[in-house]
Amino acid sequence: VQVIGVREQDLRARARVSLGEALRHRPHLWSAEESLSRAEALLEEGGTGDTLETGYLLEARASLRPDQQRLAEAHRLSDDAIAIYRRSRELHLLGRAFVEKGKIYAAAQDLEAAIHWLRKGLGLLDPTRERRFELGARLGLMLCLLESGRAQEAGFLLRASGSELNAYAGELLGL
């Protein structure tokens, strides 16, 4: 019975992380922060100690920080999530964290670093696990390439991705 209760805390924390992510996209930054803080408390109160749950929380916090103009903290949190995912050998999650790192650099207008991290992340993502995230990362890479004056590379990637983008356009737009 105790094991079920402990796992329940992890699930509640994961739900809070998901809610925080949804609120960030609305954007309700204060509410997102509050939800992530509650997720952290749930993990501390009685979670299983699963480091991946901590990684999800750190990744969500890292993605929130650029919206709050807290880029240095975003990098630190992202690095912490990357370290967890590396230790656990979760390549897809490591790819997600690399993509988030790229987005942080893009928010800081460091386009070369953003391109580097986005490409690195895309190389590890399993597109069958999170198609929408993977396609969003590709679009982010195209935008960074275009903004850095590399329109030919962006165009090549767009042509290579065109049929997939058309097929998943509704999903990307949340339709």
Plain-language structure description:
With 175 residues, the protein is an all-alpha fold. The protein has nine helices and no strands. 34% of the residues are buried.
Q: What percent of residues are in strands?
A: under 5%
**Average of the residue pLDDT scores:** 84
H-E string: HHHHHHHHH
Largest sheet: none
Count every helix, treating DSSP H or I runs of 4 or more residues as helices. Answer: 9
Low-confidence stretches: 1-5
What best-fitting shape do the alpha-carbon axes yield?
A: globular
The total beta strand count reads 0
Q: What would you report as the Rg, rounded to the nearest angstrom?
A: 17 Å
Percent helix range: over 70%
What structural category do the secondary elements indicate? mainly alpha
Determine the N-to-C terminus distance: 41 Å
Task: Put the structure in a nutshell.
The protein is built from nine helices and no strands. The N terminus is likely disordered.
Pick out its properties.
175 residues; mainly alpha; 9 helices; 81% helix
Detail the topology: elements first, then pairings:
Elements lengths: L1 H24 L3 H18 L4 H14 L6 H18 L2 H17 L3 H12 L8 H17 L3 H17 L1 H4 L3
